[in-house]
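Q: Convert this sequence to structure tokens.
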Amino acid sequence: MMAKKRPARTVNATVRAGAPRYDVTLLTEDDFYLFNEGTHRRLYAKLGAHPLTAGGQEGTCFAVWAPDAEQVFVMGDFNHWNTASHPLRSRGESGIWEGFVPAVGQGAPYKYHVLSRYHGYRGEKADPFAFYAEIPPKTASIVWNLEYAWGDREWMAERRSHNALTAPIAIYEVHLGSWMRVPEEQNRPLTYRELAPKLAEYVQRMGFTHVEFLPLMEHPFYGSWGYQTTGYFAPTSRYGTPQDFMYLVDTLHQHGIGVILDWVPSHFPTDAHGLGYFDGTHLYEHGDPRQGLHPDWDTFVFNYGRNEVRSFLMSNALFWLDAYHADGLRVDAVASMLYLDYSRKEGEWVPNRYGGRENLEAIAFLRRFTEDVYQNHPDVLMVAEESTAWPMVSRPTYVGGLGFGLKWDMGWMHDTLLYMPKDPVYRKHHHNLLTFRMLYAFTENFVLPLSHDEVVHGKGSLLAKMSGDDWQKFANLRLLYGYMYAQPGKKLLFMGGEFGQWREWHHDESLEWHLVQFSPHAGLQRWVADLNRLYRREPALHECDFDWAGFQWIDASDSDQGVLSFIRKGRSTDDLFLVVGNFTPVPRPNYRVGVPRGGFWKEMLNSDAKEYGGSGWGNLGGVESAPIAFHGRPYSLTLTLPPLAAVLLKSEGPKP
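A:
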């Protein structure tokens, strides 16, 4: 936002005792060069506030980028928030201002007072590189170090195997502040340290492989869920200190659970203390509102063409992987970065130099970003939330892709959640909603997401979306999860969905944990845990998620009876699973299904089993195949298909 013009003012600061020393610096000429070139990857070690000892004197070295500032001062409790007593010095053409302030150390709140060359602008700004911040609604940064004794050496050494594309990846998506609260203490959220053992034990018991946190970077508006970030290098202080968050990550790692962080390089809020209009100019954001303002969220858009902004974002991505041992980043709103006309009407956007709608600078940034992350941390996950049909999002940059490891399959999510609420009487007319994704399923490395976005803003919870009476809703949801886990692709489920929360998610309230005392909810929770265990244990269900060799339709066309059947295969030719889903409430005894191999097919899971809340229809542990050709296969099984249920059977091969 452009500030109102005010008369320019010259400040003649009176430097008091304890004023900045300029003989202490963390910055080298190489730092300046790489920063201005757009290739600095560890800026967080040089810019911001770093407590240290210089010449026997303890203090803090402050450095901030503000190239169009006339003067920059640091202020805080240490100088009674005096806006003119502690000036920083300009480091020439780098645009960086720096100074060492003695006797300022760990825990000191501070801000920068920036006087611009333009428009008489002056502003009090939080530090873009601060490691810690005051608890909102306060907005000051806090001097902090990141010392921590990690205990996750074993996890880090083995992380590559957990994050491999051939590994089972079942992600539990969590909004930290509303997973569990303390009602007797005014409904307060758990702290990082309180949450750590509870979440680790629960996720481990439920069988998920990873936790994905909605953005935990500092954000002023709690209702943004973290997606409007101001403190890109600071975990939110609402739940504790940086070391407390490290303890949470460390605890999850020690329980064999990976940690993915939601990261938002697409836009940032217009709050006065944040990045916007930082030095009286559009420093981090585009100056043209057709490029610099996001119409959906009323936020600023990063200027990806500016070298220093690219250094800032790249350093931030690597920071969470370096300092916090994060096992991956899920990059939010990638589509809004790729398209210049995203959510914009005709005449409200600026074409690229070729006249097209593609944001060439953002594309170049994303490709360099994924390359640099994988070069520095080849064993992490890079996940794109990209909601369009942009090609090769999860393909290497050297073949023209964006270089991500995984991409959310928003098409699968949309089609499936359009189908499942329909009355089964009408589902036969919409059978293609279930089968369409297999036309494109292997064009990307997909994650199948049932995320937070699907259970807010009047959309209802997953359980509430399902068709039918209460029994049918639970049956439909168990069927949906069975279908999801059997499909090719990694899995993601938002918290509360695993036990069938009735009301939609709200960020100010705890999940409805009391529901698990009731058998339908407990049965659903048990079903999800058993699905996770089977998915992790059986290579056929995860090893070839991104390869046609791992999938084969048996019958995709039985829309009249609402039945789908397919084979999942591992790399071993002996590793075969048959998956059959009955999407109607009609039990189907004596349903014949063709299979590629003779012998016994063991019923591994059945969502209609009584322990899950089902009616108990099933196949008495499994079925022996018959040498009767069917569905173009040399053998077939005569199955009992339970109502609104998924059945997973494993081939045990011919008898010896």
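The two ends are 76 Å apart (CA to CA).
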